[in-house]
User: Fold this.
Amino acid sequence: MLLTLALRNLWRNRRRSLLTLSAMVASSALLILALGVFSGMFADMLASGTEQYHGHMVISARGYQEDRDLFRTFAPSDINLQTLEARPEILAAAPRLRSFGLISHRTQSEPAELLGIDPGREARVTTLSQKLQKGEPLHAEDQTGALIGSGLARKLGIDIGGELVILTQAADGSIGNDLLTVRGIFASGDRHQDNALVLVQLGWLRQLLVLPNAQHEIALRLGEPLLAAPLADTLATSLPAGFEVLDWGDLLPQMRDAIAAYDVSRLIMVGVLYLATGLGILNTFFMSVLERIREFGLLMSLGVRPWQIRLLVLTEALLMGLFSLLIGVSSGLLLTWYMAQVGVDLSDYISPISYAGGTILPRLHAVFIFDNFFIPALLLLLISLLAAFLPANRAAKLHPATALREG
Assistant:
């Protein structure tokens, strides 16, 4: 009976109910879309800082990431890559060797970072080789090829096929120098990488630095980047003494703080938007209760208990919440899908923004995250019930005789 009465009363004033329902649907759908777009921005930022350069997690000699000491190396036999990749959480592992020096082309010279990589393994961990504007990725058989950032190429005035003169400090105290040929030019959107990074063959850099059979770090790609911190703690216990495991949050603390702040701001956004929606629901049910005082008095005079009156009004609120939830979440899902597949390109109006160690690209696109649907849906139902509780409580406290007289 309560359900039948609730459905009938819900549509007694169709205009008011439809206006309230429209506000609830619009707020939930737009909120889901906004959360999806914000998640997309942070996913881009996290990918630019980790998947393009650092990796989700890095293994190195203790202290190397702080001072980048040329001599803090370890042998490939110290840590087995196949053993690391056997763990289900780790998708790929890539060894690296790093140096800093001066690169020149004709009369132009610039400071740069030389990152020695194994091209096949590195392509499975990071995505810089997929950001090529020109040229082609490095190949294992091409020991004197290099990939160079677009900003650095512009400063040097070099193009595909141009020769770079490399000058750096070798481990034996000599000056390492050699020639490289530019095979590709990448544009990551990150100012540091585009203006100062050169990717070279790991074997070539070992020879230049007189560090045979040495590497500075192993970069790891994970299936779940947000679970990197607990995995790093677990992995650290299985490594030999003298090694450390740093997750992307240790390497990019500003980004970790930014993502943590986003989790808080997401709840604030939901709270502010649903507070306004809750006030609309509160107004709707107060008006509904005032119009039905005589009806409530008649029901209570026929033996309906106060708790049943309260339950009746709350059932109406729950039904309205469920209707709006069904339509709102479906609409939010479609909008998020559209933004995930198509998005909005803003590159004609704004340039990439470096923030917290990552890069926010000039595009709007959404990603599907369960919490972005679950949190708005759950809170919409809670707000509907909370907003209707005061009107329901007032209706339950009516005295039958007084209610009939006032009606």
Notes: DSSP finds 15 helices and 14 strands in the chain. The chain has a mean pLDDT of 84. Residues 57-222 form one domain.
